[in-house]
Write a structure and sequence with these properties.
Oligomer: single chain
Radius of gyration: 30 Å
Number of helices: 25
Subunit structure: Monomer. Interacts with DnaB.
InterPro entries: DNA_primase_core_N_sf, DNA_primase_DnaG, DNA_primase_Znf_CHC2, DnaG_bac, DNAG_N, DnaG_primase, TOPRIM_DnaG_bac, TOPRIM_dom
Strand order of the largest sheet: 1-2-3-4-5
GO molecular function: DNA binding; DNA-directed RNA polymerase activity; zinc ion binding
CATH topology of the largest domain: DNAb Helicase, Chain A
Number of strands: 16
Structural class: alpha+beta
Distance between the termini: 47 Å
Catalytic activity: ssDNA + n NTP = ssDNA/pppN(pN)n-1 hybrid + (n-1) diphosphate
Helix content: 40-55%
Mean pLDDT: 86
Family: Belongs to the DnaG primase family.
């Protein structure tokens, strides 16, 4: 059962250690840590992890949940994919679903493919000659696991079959293709680069043609293990150096390997154009502070640089744009002074503010008012920062004042007019609903979910027998679900997707531990408050009806409700 596997995963993996890969956590009391929320921008930590309860919660944006919910949200996965990823890391076997290979099996298929590609490189001197011609040493080839997919269309297909891997499994892993019911090797006649996740496991491949074939680069299709915007090539090999605080980000896989070989082991490569939010989080997880973007010197490379600077996560780094002395970093590997040239490019890299201004002003004459206007309009979005003391926005304003001949007052008036013309900013996180009954329902649910797993069903049934939530209410839905599937992790997962889920996790985080001897009293008082709230809601509706249509029967029912309300108050007041 998945329930048993989930419990095993949580026993083997520490929530705090998993969260620490993405968030710098500091102690905040016994068994608790806090840090800046990875799900919204903040300067004061409101994100907490409670190891004993196995929960995380942000008191700012209301994100919350358990270990699996965290991985779902931070990696953009669904529940099953997050579960499989954690099971693989914890060494927990999940039950197979309908004959579909699970993630562990897919990792094994990729290992077999890697062995086949490396054998291919050893057997094909033309592939080795190509790599040597690019300046790569045998040490670099071994460190990054480069291989070669022979031109034969079914070599890998046959290799996998010998090891008991079906064509369907090879297709699912992204190393085989299928057309008209026939399976074939997805990579043929290409140098292969294994793409690894943050734990160093192969999740995909990129193939590079030896000649001028199109496409020049071919990535694995996206699979349950691989989304190209969520991985960085050379990230596992760079981790130790990244922790020193600096990252160099390039576009090409050859570029990354070349810079490692030239003595810049903090280099990683994107698998597309520009840095993504998920990739930026990987850098943040290693406590990177400075990011040097060394994208190609062409127009596409400069566009990718600007795109990276506009990420929401980008505000957590100091960015520099590297002006390359060659088309791309890989070319410097063949230059006798390549390392020195790249080091000089790093030292002369433009801070984000200067790069933005140069790109905005490219090809324009700042002596002409209409050109000044174009520069101003191009830079306006970044100057209209929601952060009150955004250093990049402030330095950019100062540069605009200096270079465009505006006074600070004129610039501020212009920005204010643009701000007024913009659509209103998104509303802040929802405050707690004013519906008192819903809040009390959440208190009861939080109390039940704080109980030991083995006591849950017993107390769910007790609550169901002693309170009568209206049809369609959150508590009614919870009690019905909990009696069918009394698993805390499953119930938390379902509730986290409800509108009031954030408030529930806040209550779970704040709920004190209840001693066994006091549990009946605590439950009884919570139920009394909830019943009172239900009675008050009913009483309010009856009073409205009484005003519209006076009736002795309605008056009698209101009096009965008054007596019931008073009885509940005596219970929770301990009278």
């Amino acid at each position: 059962m998945d329930g048993e596997a989930i419990e095993a995963i949580k026993r083997r993996l520490s929530l705090k250690e998993v969260v620490s890969r993405y968030v710098a956590l500091k102690p905040a009391g016994r068994g608790r840590w806090k840090g800046l929320c990875p799900f919204h921008q903040e300067k004061t930590p409101s994100f907490y992890v409670d190891e004993e309860k196995g929960l995380f919660h942000c008191f700012g944006c209301k994100a919350g949940g358990d270990l699996i919910a965290f991985v779902e949200k931070i990696e953009g996965l669904d529940f099953q994919a997050a579960l499989e990823r954690l099971a693989e890391e914890a060494g927990v076997e999940l039950p197979k679903r309908g004959g579909v290979p699970n993630r562990k099996e897919l990792y094994e298929v990729l290992k077999l493919a890697q062995a086949y590609f490396q054998e291919g490189l050893a057997a094909h001197p033309e592939a080795r000659a190509y790599l040597e011609g690019r300046g790569l040493t045998p040490e670099s080839l071994a460190r990054f696991g480069l291989g070669y997919a022979p031109p034969k269309g079914d070599g890998l297909l046959t290799h996998l079959a010998r090891h008991g891997v079906s064509p369907e499994e090879g297709l699912k892993a992204g190393v085989l293709g299928e057309k008209g019911g026939r399976y074939y090797d997805y990579f043929r006649g290409r140098v292969t680069f294994p793409i690894k996740d943050h734990l160093g496991r192969i999740v995909a491949f990129t193939g590079r043609a030896l000649g001028d074939e199109n496409p020049k680069y071919l990535n694995s299709p996206e699979t349950p293990l691989f989304r190209k915007r969520e991985v960085l090539f050379a990230y596992p090999e760079s981790k130790a150096k990244l922790r020193e605080g600096r990252a160099i980000v390039v576009e090409g896989l050859f570029d990354a390997i070349a810079l490692h070989q030239m003595g810049f082991p903090e280099t990683v490569a994107v698998l597309g154009s520009g840095l993504s939010e998920a990739q930026a989080r990987l850098l943040k997880a290693q406590e990177v502070r400075e990011v040097y973007l060394a994208f190609d010197a062409d127009e596409a490379g400069q566009k990718a640089t600007l795109q990276s600077l506009d990420l929401e996560m980008a505000r957590q780094f100091l960015f520099y744009a590297v002006r390359l002395p060659a088309k791309d970093p890989g070319e410097l590997l063949l230059h006798p002074e390549g390392p020195a040239l790249f080091q000089r490019a790093l030292e002369e890299a433009l801070p984000e503010v200067d790069f933005r201004f140069q790109e905005a002003a490219k090809g324009l004459a700042l002596s002409r008012p209409e050109h000044k206007r174009k520069v101003l309009e191009a830079l306006t979005p970044r100057m209209l920062s929601p952060e009150p003391f955004d250093p990049v926005a402030e330095r950019l304003k100062a540069l605009v004042v200096e270079r465009l001949g505006l006074s600070p007052r004129e610039l501020n008036e212009y920005l204010q007019s643009r701000r007024r013309g913009k659509p209103p900013p998104p509303p802040p996180p929802k405050a707690e609903p004013r519906n008192r009954a819903l809040l009390l329902e959440l208190d009861v649910i939080a109390l039940l979910l704080s109980l030991p797993q083995e006591r849950l069903l017993e107390w769910v049934r007790y609550v169901a027998d002693h309170v009568w939530p209206p049809e369609g209410s959150l508590l009614a839905e919870f009690l019905e679900l909990a009696q069918k599937e009394p698993r805390k992790d499953y119930l938390r997962q379902v509730l986290s997707r409800k509108e009031a889920g954030g408030i529930l996790f806040e209550r779970l985080m704040l709920a004190p531990e209840v001693e066994e001897a006091r549990l009946p009293e605590v439950v009884e008082k919570a139920l009394a408050r909830l019943r009172e709230a239900y009675y008050l809601e009913r009483r309010s509706k009856l009073k409205e009806l009484l005003q519209q249509s006076p009736s002795l029967e309605l008056l009698r029912e209101i009096q009965e409700l008054d007596q019931a309300i008073e009885a509940e108050r005596r219970i929770y007041r301990g009278l």
